[in-house]
Every structure is written in C-alpha cells, then in structure tokens.
Design brief:
The protein is α/β, with parallel strands linked by helices and 323 residues long. The protein contains 13 helices and eight strands. Bound molecules: nicotinamide-adenine-dinucleotide.
Length: 323
C-alpha cells in the first residue's frame, strides 16, 4: 500500500471524490493517475498493452514518491478495467492519454463518448490536436470533449492547458478547470484551437531563434543553453516573462518598459529568422548537444532536473501565490 498526495491538492471528502477514468497508462497516463489518486479520487484505468496494470501500479508508486506525496491516498483506490467501455462506464471525468495519432485518438474518443455517462467531462492530453479534430467521430455529446494538456514531467509540473471546442459549454469548461485546480494543477483556458496550444508555441518561438543562431554560427548550442538557464530562465521559473518585464520598468512598470524599450525590441523581433530543420541544421544541433552533454548520464541528469524542480516548486509555495 503506497501513500501519496500532492502538496497543492485540496483533499477531497469521500462525498466529493470523483470517479476518474484514465485511458492509456503510459508516461502521461501514469502521471495523471498519480495526481488524481493523490487528491483522494477513485481511478479506473484501461490500457490494452500486456502488463499495463502492473506497470501502472509501479509507476504510480514511483511518481508518488518522487513528487514527495504524503498521507491519505492509496493504490487501493486504483482499479484496472478489462475494456475501455468498462473503464469509463461510471466516470465523472475521463482523461485520455493514448498514442498521438489522430485516427487512433478519434476512435478512442468516439468510444469513450459512447460509453461514458453523458454528464462526464472528457479531456485529452494531446500535445498537438484540437478538440474539433478529436471529437470528429463522437456523436453522443462531442462538446464535452476538451483538451487538457499537461507538461512533462507531468507528475511534477503544475501547468495544464484547457482547450474547448466551439461546441463546449461554459459549464464543462469550468468543471475541467476546477477539477484540475482541485488536484493542485495550474490550469489556463486557451480560447482558440491552435496547433501546439500555447506553452509549446512559446517554446517554439524560442527554439526557432535558438536554432537560427546556431545555424548562423553566432553561438554554440551550449551557449544558447547558458544564455537561458543562467539568464532569463532563472527568473521565468519565478515570474512569467510579462510580469517579469513590468518589473524592469521600476515604478513606471510595463508602461515605462514598453515606451522606453518597445521600439528597439520591435527591431529585434523583426530581425528574427525562420528556420527549416534540414539535415544540415539537425546535424549541427545534435552534435552541439552531444558535445555539451558529453560526460553526462541522461538518467542522472533527469533525476537532478526533477529534484531541483521539486525544490523550485516548494520555494514558490513557501513564498506564497505568485502570478
Ligand atoms: N510525453 C510527453 O512529454 C507528453 C507531454 C504532454 C502530453 N503528451 C500527450 O500524452 C499522450 C500520451 O503520451 P505518452 O507520452 O504517455 O505516450 P506513451 O506511449 O507512453 O503511452 C501511450 C499509451 O497508450 C496506450 N494505448 C494504445 N492504444 C490504446 C487504446 N486503444 N486504448 C487505451 N490505451 C491505448 C499504449 O499501450 C500506451 O501505454 C499523447 O497524446 C501525448 O501527445 C505527452
């Protein structure tokens, strides 16, 4: 019996506990299962892969321990169902985490929609597809299918992007947002269906310029990483880039920054280059990262990253709710 909870989760009374179905129990499904169990919900999981049940239990224990989860919740609240339809039959909330292939997701979500109670909210962890693409084959209540996109390592990082379709009601949106908040996540509502949602688009904007600077020989791959992880990245973990920018304006705040630095900033923005990931550029990026991480064991590095992430999250909690 493994005891787990997330420090930011609001412990639920047994009356408020939801029946949550986790469909697809790979890396992301296991992270969601950990979060929902930690908050006191009941989880019913389904994944057709051989040995998935045992792997999920092990992964939930590991994630729970890593997330420094403590008290109340136990693996006894986790059931593995023999079919997708049985897993969702009594669900209040479904989180789908199947393979990132449109036709697979569409048929999984149509099956979930058909078998789940009409009042259930259905969220997909998809990194790239829009809810209107995902719900194309669903016929019972397709409007309750939304994107609920987590960020890796999903058992630690609080962000969830909620993307509704045009057919999603305000009530479904609020239930999705509230369900995530109640398990200690930090959901944002994305008001348009865009490829890559929001956080990955922001990353893509930065990767684009990073790749271009490496391609043009301006700096090395290691220099790019230093420029972020020892520079603005340190501040971004504490305050987002816009709140952070307003602090640069002192008493004048954002108005002063934009009046003063906006014009040169616009020159930099207009000078940013588009890149094409051809073989030559890929080779530069791969050899650059290989050189940067030459003496590093990726398993050790991942563990160090996650340990430090936990400390940063704990520090944010200690200093109170920042924007
Ligand atoms: N890995 C990431 O960094 C990340 C981050 C955010 C979101 N996502 C999204 O989460 C989803 C899952 O990604 P992952 O990294 O966990 O992949 P994964 O390969 O680890 O897991 C996918 C799981 O789906 C199962 N599966 C296959 N067919 C199924 C079916 N018909 N019904 C139920 N389960 C089925 C597989 O057996 C496997 O266990 C994807 O949509 C991905 O885009 C991934």
């Amino acid at each position: 019996m493994s005891a787990i909870t997330s420090a930011d989760a609001v412990p639920v009374s047994s009356k408020a506990a939801l029946n949550v179905a986790i469909i697809g129990t790979g890396v992301i499904g296991a992270a969601w299962a950990t979060g929902f169990l930690a908050a006191g919900h009941t989880v019913t999981a389904f994944d057709p892969a051989d040995g998935a049940d045992e792997r999920l239990r092990k992964q939930v224990s590991n994630f729970g321990a890593e997330a420094d989860a403590c008290t109340t919740t136990v693996l006894d609240n986790l059931t593995f169902a023999p079919s997708l339809a049985e897993a969702v039959a009594n669900a209040d909330f479904v989180q789908e985490n199947g393979p990132e292939r449109l036709e697979v997701k569409q048929s999984m979500l149509a099956e979930i929609d058909a078998a789940a109670p009409e009042a259930a909210v259905i969220a997909s962890s998809t990194s790239g597809f829009s809810p209107s693409q995902l719900n194309a084959l669903a016929s019972k209540a397709p409007g309750r299918i939304v994107v609920g996109h987590p960020f890796n390592p999903a058992h630690l990082v609080p962000l969830v992007e909620v993307v509704p379709s045009t057919g999603t009601s305000a009530e479904v949106i609020e239930r999705a947002m509230e369900t995530y908040r109640a398990i200690g996540k930090k959901p944002i509502l994305v008001r348009a269906e865009l490829p890559g949602h929001v956080a990955n688009r922001l990353q893509a904007a930065m990767w684009q310029e990073a790749y271009s600077l490496v391609d043009r020989g301006v700096v090395s791959v290691a220099d790019i990483d230093t420029a972020i992880s020892y520079g603005p990245g340190l501040r971004w973990a504490i305050l987002g880039p816009l709140a952070q920018q307003s602090l640069s304006g002192g008493a004048g705040g954002m108005r002063h920054v934009l009046d003063h630095l906006g014009p040169p900033q616009e020159v930099w923005m207009h000078d940013l280059k588009q890149v094409h990931l051809d073989e030559d550029l890929k080779e530069k990026l791969i050899s650059g990262v290989d050189e940067e991480l030459e003496d590093r064991d990726p398993t050790v590095l991942t563990k160090q990253r996650d340990d430090m992430l936990l400390e940063v999250i704990a520090l944010k909690r200690k200093y109170g709710e920042l924007p």
